[in-house]
Structures are given as C-alpha cells and as structure tokens.
Amino acid sequence: MGLEVYVTHRFQLSAKSENGIQALWRWADIEMEGQIQEGWDVPVTLGKRGELLAAESEFGPDGRRMNVPFFFIYPPDDLGDKKEWTFEFKPEKSTDGPAFSATYKIVGSEAAIGEDATKVNVELKEEGSGGMVVKGVYWVGKDGWVRKFDLSVENWPVPQMGQSIFVKIRGSLKT
C-alpha cells in the first residue's frame, strides 16, 4: 500500500535553550489521496541540530518515529567548505525508537515558495529489519528555515493505521 500526501507543517517555538528547542508542531492542510484530512498538534523537543528527540503523542514511540523525516538536521558548526554531512541517532532508551543514520548533501540553489533556497538531498536509514528509509529533498531558506520538502519514505510507521507503509509526501513549513 502506498500513499501520496501533501501537508503544510506549522512550527510554533515555545522555548529555546542551549540544549535544544521546545515547540508545537502542527500537521495542517493535509491532502491524502485527494481527500482533505483533519490536522493535529504535536508538542516536540528538538536537539541542538534540529533532530527530533521527543514527540508527545497517544501513539508512543511510533508517534515520534512517524515525525522524524520532517525534521531537517542541520550541519555541525564546523562544516566549512564541505557540501555533505552526516548525523547518527543513538537511542538512550528503548522507547526512543531505533538508531538511524542520515546523510545530507547540498546539491544547489533554486527558488522555493518565492525565494532563493539551498537544495539539500537527504538519505536516512533506520537500523534493523523493516526500518524506515527516507530519500528526498529539502529546500532551506537563507534564514535557515525549511521552505518545502519532497520525501519518499519506505516503512513509514503510521500508528493510526496500525502498520508501516510507503508514502510519497510533499509539503511546506510555515513558522
């Protein structure tokens, strides 16, 4: 089973510290297979580089896993002239979900939602059999915010459906 989804994510910052960010993540304007779906809010905690550490949801760890692909992980401060970086997520406890690695590569610049943006390819893979695999593109504005994304996700956990599926999901982020 595979789905095509378009979504607008809204991000409302609640608190910021040297350890990360607390925010409200909203799934809004969801169109799935031509049908408009009701959105929902997810309180989230992000790490220093934008990685999703926690998502408060009635779906437990799968609720966090479901949202992982939509959080762009920024390069370390020492990127320099490099055009590629990686991120390794190692869970601190079993409820954090599986470990994953992600590779990001700057591939150019182009307009995204009416402004210049840096185009960044991503490949993310969870460890283990049946782990989530994400391939796609983020367009990041000059201010560092993601403008839009286009992702293909294999084994995307959808707790509401009680299964993992293939999904092609495109969308934008509004702050």
Describe this structure in words.
This protein has 175 residues and is mainly beta. The protein has one helix spanning 61-67, and strands at 2-17, 20-32, 35-37, 40-46, 52-55, 84-89, 100-112, 115-126, 133-141, 146-158, 163-174. Strands 1, 2, 3, 4, 5, 6, 7, 8, 9, 10 and 11 form an eleven-stranded mixed sheet that branches. It is globular, with a radius of gyration of 15 Å.
Question: What general form does the structure show?
Answer: globular
Low-pLDDT stretches: none
Order of helices and strands: EEEEEHEEEEEE
End-to-end separation in angstroms reads 32 Å
Rg, please?
A: 15 Å
Instruction: Tell me the helix content.
Output: under 10%
Task: List the domain count as a whole number.
Answer: 1
Number of strands: 11
The chain-level structural class is mainly beta
The main β sheet shows up as: 11 strands, mixed
What order do the helices and strands come in, and which of them pair?
Layout: E1 2-17, E2 20-32, E3 35-37, E4 40-46, E5 52-55, H1 61-67, E6 84-89, E7 100-112, E8 115-126, E9 133-141, E10 146-158, E11 163-174
Parallel strand pairs: 1-11
Antiparallel strand pairs: 1-2, 2-3, 2-4, 4-5, 6-7, 7-8, 8-9, 9-10, 10-11
